[in-house]
Design goal:
Blueprint: H1 4-15, H2 18-25, E1 33-35, E2 38-39, H3 40-46, H4 50-61, E3 67-69, H5 75-83, H6 99-105, H7 109-115, H8 123-137, E4 142-144, E5 147-149, H9 157-172, H10 174-179, E6 196-198, H11 201-217, E7 228-231, E8 235-237, E9 250-252, E10 257-260, E11 269-272, E12 275-277, E13 280-289, E14 293-294, E15 297-300, E16 305-307, E17 310-319, E18 329-333, E19 336-339, E20 342-344, E21 347-356, E22 362-366, E23 369-372, E24 375-377, E25 380-389, E26 392-394, E27 397-400, E28 404-406, E29 409-417, E30 424-428, E31 431-434, E32 437-439, E33 442-450, E34 456-460, E35 463-466, E36 469-471, E37 474-475, E38 478-484, E39 490-494, E40 497-500, E41 511-513, E42 516-517, E43 520-526, E44 532-536, E45 539-542, E46 545-547, E47 550-551, E48 554-556, E49 563-573, H12 574-578, H13 580-583, E50 584-585, E51 587-589, E52 596-602, E53 608-609, E54 617-619, H14 622-627
Parallel strand pairs: 1-3, 6-7, 7-9, 8-10, 9-12, 10-13, 11-15, 12-16, 13-17, 14-18, 15-19, 16-20, 17-21, 18-22, 19-23, 20-24, 21-25, 22-26, 23-27, 24-28, 25-29, 26-30, 27-31, 28-32, 29-33, 30-34, 31-35, 32-36, 33-37, 33-38, 34-39, 35-40, 36-41, 37-42, 38-43, 39-44, 40-45, 41-46, 42-47, 43-48, ...
Antiparallel strand pairs: 1-2, 4-5, 52-53
Length: about 625
């Protein structure tokens, strides 16, 4: 018999009640409860509690030790219906149906792949995963990009009948296909030399469905799973009805356009498993988002790629207002939500786009991609006519999580603001947060923050937060913050990064090197609110290496007792100040009127103390700078 609190917890899971669940678990360990064989997260999957999953999944996946309580009798019949032949694995009431196992039993292979890195740490779970894949999917799991991946589900009987019917219909038109197009699709699409020829929206839909049939029949393996499409002209898609959920084809656009005539309310595809080359996509968005997303696709998988594509984007993106209880960050990409593959030579261009957030939801907009765990190379975001309200921002990618971003460019004419009094505005020219490698990237244009209602501002020419390596990047954009009254308390501006974080066990190579900034930095403060300014030509605050960088722009800000301005950085950590030669070398600034190359040092508590001149940061004239043998001089 469950006590009252556990009954409430179980009831909250069944009813998908975020408020009750949050109140029960915020100061307790009830989140680690296992109702007999069923951990809380497994029950969320079983009962389809989507809101709870989206808000609490990440935290619950980290639970390693469960507190086992009585198993309510009503769970087993629900599970039995879903588990079918997998039920034999859980006859023993001491067995546990881990969240990963539950996802596989429910046929949610894509979700399993996404969740896998956070769990599956014991032999029993791994053995059960292998058994479930063989029983449900017909083959063992595979490994892709360091993660276990479920095989593609075999076709159900009903779908096989539909496929058979499709073959019968295809037979009727076989002879016609020899002499030309059948609804705009010709040849068999099995090789690059015999692609389906797409000449219209209807034929595009047919070809996508044929690609899916092949992929499923071949279970995603080998050349038999491949389908090739080629556009023969510009295509207009009037509706997503009939589209496959995922893209399993390789599309060669031959420079043609695909225009979606109706405003998109969701991504065109969930996953891109194939490739898309030389296509211009035209989107008008009318999206209300509640998770990571992108206009073309939510995810580019490790096997997927985009090459030389153009995305023309307008319309609106609005964050769904029901995130009272989530501390997670959700990336939005104007083209792609999450990239695990390769994106090369692609461009995003905007026209009259508004992105509106919600003060309790941490959404971050990426000009091209939401979160990157693959490769993004030679890409460009050309963002003008864009208004961003209560959403954070990265010019090319929101989170550079893994992999690399290389030789990319942001051309900005962007304004950010907020109507929420407790919102901290964050914006970076290339990305919001760099946890991997940014190399040879460039930012130009205008980046403006109007922060009357904000609780603070962090603005970086390349990134807001750097926790890894930024190398050979430049920022020539003019960055302006208008803090007119309101509650804005602290403003951090850096020509390259707002914060160059301290090294850690997870990120031992934090540094900014071979970079320069030469745009205008301007802060306009008015009103009664007390504000602190931290402005640096390269970064506002640094706890790690700065080497071979220069600032040749200008900084305009009111000189006050709370305005800390440094030609290279406003502040450095006490560790750097005590051992500057280990962290600082060949950093130069040309502007006059700054306190020095560095304005202050800060201790472990973040308290500011005065600072004498530091080696490795020097003032020089523009003429002297040109003679220096440093990056791009």
């Amino acid at each position: 018999m469950l006590d009252n609190e556990l009954n409430q917890l179980f009831d909250a899971v069944k009813k998908d009640d975020c408020e009750t669940f949050f109140n029960l678990t915020k100061n307790t360990r009830l989140g680690s409860t296992c109702f007999g064989r069923f951990p809380v997260l497994s029950l969320m999957y079983l009962y389809g509690s989507d809101k709870l999953v989206k808000n609490f999944e990440k935290k619950l996946l980290e639970v390693g030790v469960y507190t086992v309580v009585d198993e309510p009798e009503e769970i087993y019949p629900v599970f039995k219906e879903k588990a079918k032949k997998c039920l034999r694995l859980y006859v023993d009431k001491d067995a546990v149906v881990s969240p990963l196992e539950m996802l596989l039993i429910l046929g949610r292979g894509a979700h399993f792949w996404h969740a896998y890195p956070s769990a599956a740490k014991n032999a029993t779970v791994k053995n059960n995963i292998n058994a479930i894949c063989n029983m449900v999917y017909g083959s063992p799991p595979t490994k892709k990009s360091g993660r276990l991946a479920a095989p593609v589900l075999p076709l159900k009987k009903k779908n096989k009948i539909l496929v058979l019917a499709a073959y019968v219909v295809a037979g009727v038109f076989a002879l016609l296909a020899v002499f030309g197009f059948v609804f705009g699709v010709s040849t068999n699409g099995k090789t690059e030399k015999s692609p389906f020829i797409v000449a219209g929206g209807e034929s595009f839909t047919q070809a996508l469905n044929k690609a899916q049939e092949r992929y499923y029949d071949a279970r995603g393996e080998g050349s038999a799973a491949k389908t090739y499409l080629e556009l023969s002209r510009d295509v207009t898609v009037d509706s997503l009805n009939g589209f496959t959920e995922n893209l399993f084809a390789d599309i060669d656009g031959k420079g043609h356009r695909i225009t979606f005539s109706q405003p998109l309310t969701k991504s065109v595809f969930n996953y891109i498993v194939g490739s898309v080359t030389d296509v211009t996509f035209v989107f008008t968005l009318d999206m209300t988002v509640k998770d990571f997303t992108g206009a073309l696709a939510n995810v580019v998988t490790a096997d997927g790629s985009l090459t030389n594509c153009v995305f023309l984007v307008g319309g609106s993106i609005t964050v769904q207002s029901d995130y009272e209880y989530s501390a997670d960050y959700f990336p939005i990409g104007l083209a792609i939500g999450a990239n695990g593959g390769k994106i090369t030579g692609c461009t995003v261009t905007t026209d009259d786009l508004t992105v509106t957030g919600y003060e309790h939801a941490n959404f971050v907009l990426g000009g091209l991609v939401g979160v990157n765990e693959g490769e993004i190379t030679d890409c460009k975001s050309s963002l003008s006519g864009v208004t961003v309200d209560t959403v954070d921002f990265g010019g090319v990618v929101a989170f550079n999580q893994k992999g690399k971003v290389e030789k990319c460019e942001s051309e900005l004419d962007l304004s950010l603001t907020t109507r929420a009094g407790n919102w901290l505005i964050n914006a970076g020219g290339i990305c919001y947060s760099n946890l991997s490698a940014l190399t040879d990237c460039r930012v130009t244009g205008e980046l403006t923050v109007n922060s009357a209602q904000a609780s603070g501002v962090l603005l970086g020419g390349i990134t807001v937060y750097n926790q890894n390596v930024i190398n050979k990047c430049s920022n020539s954009a003019n960055m302006t913050v208008n803090a007119d009254g309101g509650s804005t308390a602290e403003i951090y501006l850096g020509g390259i990064a707002a914060v160059n974080s301290k090294k850690s066990e997870d990120y031992p190579t934090v540094r900014i090197e071979n970079c320069f900034a030469d745009g205008k930095i301007e802060v306009n403060v008015s009103g009664d609110g007390k504000k602190k300014l931290f402005i640096g030509g390269i970064c506002a605050q640094s706890g790690a290496e700065l080497k071979n960088n220069f600032f040749n722009g200008s900084i305009t800000a009111e000189k006050t007792d709370t305005a800390y301005i440094g030609g290279i950085t406003a502040g450095i950590s006490e560790e750097i100040a005590s051992e500057p030669t280990e962290f600082l070398s060949e950093n130069y600034y040309t502007g006059n009127g700054y306190t020095d190359g560095v304005a202050f040092k800060f201790d472990e508590e973040g308290l500011i103390t005065s600072l004498d001149r530091v080696e490795g940061i020097e003032y020089c004239t523009e003429e002297e700078l040109k003679a220096k043998e440093i990056y791009r001089q």
